[in-house]
Design a protein that fits this description.
Helix content is about 65%, strand content about 0%. It contains 2 helices and no strands. The longest helix is centred in the middle third of the chain and has 30 residues.
């Protein structure tokens, strides 16, 4: 039947409604912010610095302004 010939994939074009598009944009922003803060935390961890919860919460303000 199916032989191992690689990955089979399909591509679909979606046309979301305006509310769905806003939610997708919001999710993209959340994903960007999470990845940015994670990279900052990894950088600080490599330097051996310990952060408190308030320090990471303060980072979210400038990261949002950066975007």
């Amino acid at each position: 039947m199916w032989k191992d010939k690689g990955v089979l994939s399909h591509r679909f074009r979606l046309y979301p409604s305006k509310p769905a598009e806003r939610k997708l944009n919001h999710m993209a922003l959340c994903r960007w912010l999470y990845n940015r803060l994670l990279s900052e935390l990894n950088f600080v961890h490599e330097k051996g610095i310990r952060l408190k919860q308030g320090d990471t919460q303060a980072c979210s303000g400038w990261a949002k302004a950066e975007r």
